[in-house]
Amino acid sequence: MMAEARVLIVEDDPHISKLVKYNFEKAGYLCTVTITGEDALNILDKDPVDLIILDIMLPKMDGFETCRLIKQNKRFAAIPIMIVTAKGEEVDRIVGLELGADDYIVKPFSPRELVLRAKAVLRRGQPKKENAKEVLGAGDIIMDIPRHKVSVHHKEIELSPMEFKLLAVLMERKGRVQSRDQLLADVWGLSSEVTTRTIDTHVKLLRQKLGKAGDMVQTVRGIGYKMEDEE
Length: 231
Prior knowledge:
Shape: globular
Helix content: 25-40%
CATH topology of the largest domain: Rossmann fold
Order of helices and strands: EHEHEHEHEHEEEEHEHHEE
CATH superfamily of the largest domain: Response regulator
Distance between the termini: 43 Å
Strand order of the largest sheet: 2-1-3-4-5
Number of strands: 12
Structural class: alpha/beta
Number of helices: 8
Number of domains: 2
Radius of gyration: 18 Å
């Protein structure tokens, strides 16, 4: 964990915010708590943080809109966001991840797991490289690792940080099957004790953004995924 990482907790339930704040401070984080999205944006404008814990069902402006505004602002876009909410339907997860959230956790949750996943999210940087290649290619997909850019058929596409990491790992290991547990460890930095559902959601979103080229991300039933070049 980075030294004294700063966490902004946006949660209107005082019992939950107190629980989250206690566990993060116990783990060595500096915490600020607010109950509205508007206040969160004001806080970021004065003093950007290292991580945002964001509820969805907030008074006035909801968490989805708050997430969208944060990710649209170039000053704050790189700040990782973890959505922690009671809204656990797949459509809600997809909306949150499409808006740029780095993780999506459904209440009730384990405070220990939340802190563990926060540490993984804060481990920024590129995926582990197995070779010296900085530009990866597969079919119409070109991935420029240092510039953090991905293009499909010469058109640049926008990926979230986790989608970028996931695609990089699959392209670096093209043709080799990656289990869900392996992807969870190498991309998210988490053990299989947490959950692998988030991988399936991210793969689904990644395929959608890649368009037809997304067909190269193949499902290996009962195991995981692999990237195969177009024939």
